[in-house]
Here is the input.
Amino acid sequence: MNTVNTYQNIEKLCCIITINEIAYKAYLSYKLGCINFLSIKHVGELEINAKNIECHVISTNEIFIIDDIISIEPEIGFKNVKFKNLIKVDYCFDKKVFSDIKFKKINFTFDKINEFLAGLSILESKKNKNSYTIVQKNCRRRINNLQFPLPNNFVLSFCQNQTQDKEGKPTSKIAINLNKWIELESEKEITLSEFMLYIDKLILFFSVGLKQRVIIDKMWSSSNFNSSSTQLILYPSQIKPIQEKSVDSIFSILYCWRNFKNLEKILSDFVLNTDNEKFEIFLQLYLRATDYNMDYIPQITFLTLTQGLESYLNFKGIKSKKNTTAKLDKIITEINNKYNDERIANALKSLKSTSFFTKIQLACKQVKITKILDFSKDNSDIDENLLKLITDIKDFRVYFTHYGTLNKKHLNTSIKDVEFALKVLSEIFILDLIGINTKDIKTIIANNYSFLDYQNFYFKTYSTKL
Here is the structure.
C-alpha cells in the first residue's frame, strides 16, 4: 500500500495551463464539501474541448489534473472552470502529457473503516521473556480473503498491511500500524468519473451502516493500473458532514460486515438499487437527519426524516386498491370532460389515491413491525399504540408543512418522541431494504437502543441475546 496524505484545502494555487497550444496563468482551488474551480486569467471567448486540464504549479513543479468539468462561467478578467475531481501526479520525473486518463483499479479508505470492519484482523501484543511481540489476530475470516464480485464487472476487495513508525533514536518505541483499505477493480479501463459513480454508492452504503456520513481521506491509483503509468493521488468531490461524530461502540452502528451472511449479494443489490433516485434520496435524507443535533432542532430532523419516508414509500410503490363506486367514477369522468383542466384532474385523482397514513400503515405491515418493536407498552393495546405513532407522524407533518393546528390530544406529545420513533422506523425500513431478515433486524434494533435504557412513548425494544 502506498499511503497518501489526508486531503488539505488548496487555496488559489498559482499554476500554468495550456489550452489549444496557448499558455495561460490560472489559480486552482479545492475544498472538501465545496464546488472546486480553476480560475483562468483570460478576457474574451475561451473554448475548452479537452476532458482534462493539466495544471503545472509554478512554485513547486507539482502537476494537478482537473477532471469532470461541470461548467465554465465568466468573471471580470477570468474564466472560472468548475469541476468535480482533482488528480495529483505523484513522483513524475520525465515529461509526460496527461490527457484522457483511464483507470483499471482504484484504492481508497475512509475515516471510519475500522469501525465498519470491527473484529477483522486486529493487532495484539504478546509479552516474551525479554521483549514484546506484535502479532496479528484474525477473527472468523482473514481480511485479505474478503473479495466480492459486483455488477457491471467490478470486483471489491478489503485489503490491509502493517507499517511501523519509529523515531530517530535507536531506543525509541516502535508503533505498529494496521492499515485497512478498499480496492475497486474494473474489468476494463474507465474514467475517474465513471469510477466515482460506483465509489459514491459504496461510501453511501458504509455511511448508512455507521449512521453518519463518512469521508474518503485517502484515494490513489498505482502506476500499473492507470493509463498514465504513473502513481496518481486522487481528490474526489465529496459531501462534507455538518458535524463529525465518533462511533462510541458497536451498539451505535446500524450495520457492519458481521451483520451479513452474504455480503456479496447485499452489496450487489445495494449498488443496483441506488440507480433509483428515490432509494438514494431516502438514504441521503436519513444521513442528513443524523447530521443534525437532535437536542436543539428535533423539528428539522423530523421533517428531514419525513421527506425520506415519503421517498421510501414512493420507491416501494406502496398503495392500496381504493374501491370507488361506479357513480363516483362517472362524476369524475364528467368533470374532467367538462373542464379539461390539469389541476382539477390532479385534485380528483386524490380521491382514488392512497393516503400518507395508509401508506405508512401498509409499510409497517410489510416489514412485520410488531415482531421487531414491542408496542404493548404498559400492557396497552398493540394496534392502538402503532396507530397512534402513525397518526402523530401524519399530524405533525401536516402541522409543520401546512401551518395547521394540533388537536388537544397532541398537547402531551413531545416532538422529540415522534422524531425519535420515526428515526427508529426509518432504520428498520433501511435494514429491510438492504436484505436483512426480520429476526436479525430485531436484534440490531435491540442492540442499538435497549442498552441506552431509552423509554420511548410509543414502544420498547424486545429483550434479545447478542
